[in-house]
């Protein structure tokens, strides 16, 4: 028997649960499905940036964020080959904090909120096809459940399947980075209230990426490394090789001396920079990783998945109010999302694509170390709080970086010839 809904949401990660929460609250009969059972893990750094924490709080989970076993960070410490940059977290609704919480727990909590708002959730149901009538209108999805083929009807489908790519038809974005993380107990770093970010020479001489140590509140840490697919292609190395090398960086090796791994390392891919994805079509909206919403420099995607889910629910409601599920009506979602995030994402994507390697930016890191205002802007463009071109507000520091960069390049050429 076919069941009818106002909205079907495919995937119950942060993007899907946020969509289902807001659409259910707006009165839409919403079906949320996931191919996995919950709670389930999602390979991640587990960092909730301040704006992501605000999205979590908007879903009624502000108090939960402060549970003592959760990590709570107040700053960023960035280590590059030549510089050390530290920046506090800007003020937010919760004070100047971000959080580090295992995704297994976060995603289960967000799903619980979607269900309590009225969404119908079905686990272990894998969407296989988007259904359209011959004139092109979406009518629902086909899915696999317990070895059977089932069908659910709705005039609108939100694709929130991460890097799954279920909807096909050009909605699947390219994957432009890969990352790997492992949990450790007793990591011995200097300041457990910071997110520690390592722009290492190994990761950044042929592309872009970074290693990280993010602390929980219970003595454990998430240690990982993310690398652009360009760096993999140029070096012929795989992600495991970069990750293993990161663990051997002299500073980190010291922090890990007494640390005990908890479980094996795990890898996953990332779709970044609002690039290469179609986020709307007749009867379809894509949110989160499915819409390439990860920030291209920080690799952060939970907050953007939740934000895009909230906006998608608004447009689902609007489409129902107008009884119009055309691409033209749903393009309002794309416009709103671009107004909100395109400057930061697209400028970051342009920088990562145009600069041959992040290692070339070492003179800029060094120059920003000495200029507090430029340092703040640099860190904000890393965290996605400012577009990369905001650095143009600091011409003297940029000039210093350029002079030092050109000087180093000339010395290298003279020395090499
Ligand atoms: C190693 C690593 C570290 C990261 N670190 C951070 C970090 O510290 N902070 C941060 O904010 N972001 C981080 N990210 C990015 C972040 O993990 C993603 O942006 C985020 O998970 C996106 O949420 P989502 O809801 O779009 O997709 P997902 O969380 O991937 O959820 C998609 C869901 O869809 C389901 N699904 C897939 N296909 C189907 C189907 N056909 N039918 C039904 N269900 C389906 C899956 O089972 C899954 O539950 C990291 C990513 C990686 C790989």
Short description:
Helix content is 38%, strand content 24%. The protein contains twelve helices and 20 strands.
Task: Fill in the keyword field for this structure.
globular, seven-stranded mixed sheet, D-Amino Acid Oxidase, Chain A, domain 2, six-stranded mixed sheet, alpha/beta, 3 domains, 12 helices, FAD/NAD(P)-binding domain, binds flavin-adenine dinucleotide, 417 residues
User: Share of helix among residues?
Assistant: 25-40%
- CATH C-level class of the largest domain is Alpha Beta
Biggest β-sheet: strands ordered side by side in the sheet: 7-6-15-16-17-14-18
**In the CATH scheme, what's the topology name of the largest domain?**
FAD/NAD(P)-binding domain
Number of helices: 12
Distance N to C terminus:
76 Å
The main sheet comes to: 7 strands, mixed
Rg (CA only): 22 Å
Please mark out the parts with pLDDT under 50 across 5 or more consecutive residues, or reply none: none
Report on this structure.
The chain is an alpha/beta fold and 417 residues long. It is 38% helix and 24% strand. It has helices spanning 14-25, 50-65, 103-116, 201-204, 229-235, 239-247, 250-255, 302-322, 327-354, 362-369, 372-383, 395-416, and strands at residues 3-4, 7-10, 30-33, 47-48, 71-73, 75-79, 84-88, 98-100, 120-122, 125-132, 138-145, 148-153, 157-159, 177-185, 194-198, 209-215, 220-228, 260-270, 280-281, 284-286. Strands 7-6-15-16-17-14-18 form a seven-stranded mixed beta sheet, with helices on both faces. It has a six-stranded mixed beta sheet with strand order 9-3-2-13-20-19. Strands 1-12-11-10 form a four-stranded mixed beta sheet, with no helix packed on it. Helix 1 (14-25) runs parallel beside helix 8. The longest helix is centred in the last third of the chain and has 28 residues, at 327-354. It starts with a strand and ends with a helix. The model has no long low-confidence stretch (mean pLDDT 93). Flavin-adenine dinucleotide binds at residues 10-16, 33-36, 42-47, 52, 126-127, 160-162, 164, 166, 179, 181, 224, 268, 270, 288-290, 294, 299-303, 305.
